[in-house]
Amino acid sequence: MKVNYSDFRKHLNIEKMNGSAENVAILTHYLQNFALEDTIDYAERAISYYQEIQQGNEKIQAVPLKKLVPIKWDIPFPAPDKPKFTFIDLFAGIGGFRLAFQNLGGKCVFTSEWDESAKRTYEFNFGEVPFGDITKESTKGFIPKRFDVLCAGFPCQAFSIAGKRGGFEDTRGTLFFDVAEIIRRHQPKAFFLENVKGLRNHDKGRTLNTILNVLRDDLNYFVPDPQIINAKDFGVPQNRERIFIIGYHKDLGIDQFEYPEPLDQPVAIEDILEKEEVSVKYYLSTQYLKTLKEHKARHESKGNGFGFEIIPNDSIANAVVCGGMGRERNLIIDERLSNFTPVTKIKGEVNREGIRKMTPREWARLQGFPDTYRICVSDVQAYKQFGNSVAVPAIQATAEKLLAKLNLQQPN
């Protein structure tokens, strides 16, 4: 008996499994990786948990878990049937790294993310509930023994390294330490780390030097100089600069790497805008627009460039971010609105200048997510998730360069 994942998910009633997040992660990871039982230690726990939830569930009661696999993956982005390599996805967010590496033939064998709303979005698109806090030893224990590439868009925390060498011990208490510890234990062929552009100059460059010392000297990886990559150079109309750090295990004998060259592909906001009229809820109220204009005028009078910004259709967006002025720095003019009756509580009326926020789907396109990517959360959460994500085309272009140097005939 084979079932669709959507039906299986419904029968399990995943939405109401409060307090069972780790068990659901174990079960969905098993369904994705049952063929890799020799590399995972949680098969018995997955089967045991499934047996527990069978009780009282007539729809699945008589069907052993091993007779259900492989599941029919009726999800937007199933793993390839015959993967060329394996990878793990740390600080996974909503799966930008996973999309890029799956597009290149890879299979994700472990995912972790601690934001519950992001985990929901991830599962709806990939059929897998991420494990939680990667700083916990119990979470690290679910990582398969072998995999080819480690991916991590790890948050940057302050390192206390003043006057020190800046080695492995100096990273304790930071999230980078957990990434480094996983690399040390599992010795993947390569890794791909991503962070904000400011990491290069954080603490006068000492933080980045510490990271490179650990990766090169303590962990024995060839790490070329990190590079700032801009999403606008890889097919999306967004000025988003991020630092990429690539590494290869020195046993592979790889001692050269070239980051991808920018594409000769002009892009503009008009390429990602909705084709049809959008809801009035995305249009600013007259009162809100007045407040933004006053705020900007106050800063301009002091010689500052802070404040809202309207992006011309033939230009590119500022970086989308989840906080501060993320949406207000990327307003557009869209004069197609035909119904000005508010659908949410606003002060004043809907503005008649056509000024609106971009929709979550437009933000998804700015990050290179295809329109088949499911947005299953509120607008507030969607803006946060896409603002925190990676730009998929930039990741994929760099990943393609990384993978080209590896022997990927057989995945680990």
What features would you describe in this structure?
By secondary structure, the protein is of the alpha/beta class. It has 3 domains: 1-74, no CATH class; 75-262 and 390-404, 3-Layer(aba) Sandwich (Rossmann fold); 275-358, no CATH class. The protein has 12 helices and 11 strands. It has helices at residues 5-12, 21-33, 43-54, 96-103, 116-126, 137-140, 175-186, 206-218, 286-301, 360-366, 379-388, 392-404, and strands spanning 85-90, 106-111, 149-152, 190-196, 221-222, 227-230, 238-239, 241-249, 317-318, 332-333, 355-356. Strands 1, 2, 3, 4, 5, 6 and 8 form a 7-stranded mixed beta sheet that branches. A two-stranded parallel sheet has the order 7-9. A two-stranded antiparallel ribbon has the order 10-11. Helix 2 (21-33) packs across helix 3 and helix 4 crosses helix 12. The protein is globular, with a radius of gyration of 23 Å. This is Cytosine-specific methyltransferase. The active site is at 156.
Low-confidence stretches: none
Total domain count: 3
The main β sheet shows up as: 7 strands, mixed
Strand content: 5-15%
Number of strands: 11
Keywords:
single chain; 412 residues; Rossmann fold; 3 domains; seven-stranded mixed sheet; two-stranded parallel ribbon; 12 helices; 11 strands; globular; C5-MTase; EC 2.1.1.37; Cytosine-specific methyltransferase; restriction system; C5_DNA_meth_AS
How are the secondary structure elements laid out?
Layout: H1 5-12, H2 21-33, H3 43-54, E1 85-90, H4 96-103, E2 106-111, H5 116-126, H6 137-140, E3 149-152, H7 175-186, E4 190-196, H8 206-218, E5 221-222, E6 227-230, E7 238-239, E8 241-249, H9 286-301, E9 317-318, E10 332-333, E11 355-356, H10 360-366, H11 379-388, H12 392-404
Parallel strand pairs: 1-2, 1-3, 3-4, 7-9
Antiparallel strand pairs: 4-8, 5-8, 6-8, 10-11
Catalytic activity: a 2'-deoxycytidine in DNA + S-adenosyl-L-methionine = a 5-methyl-2'-deoxycytidine in DNA + S-adenosyl-L-homocysteine + H(+)
Keywords: Methyltransferase, Restriction system, S-adenosyl-L-methionine, Transferase
Family: Belongs to the class I-like SAM-binding methyltransferase superfamily. C5-methyltransferase family.
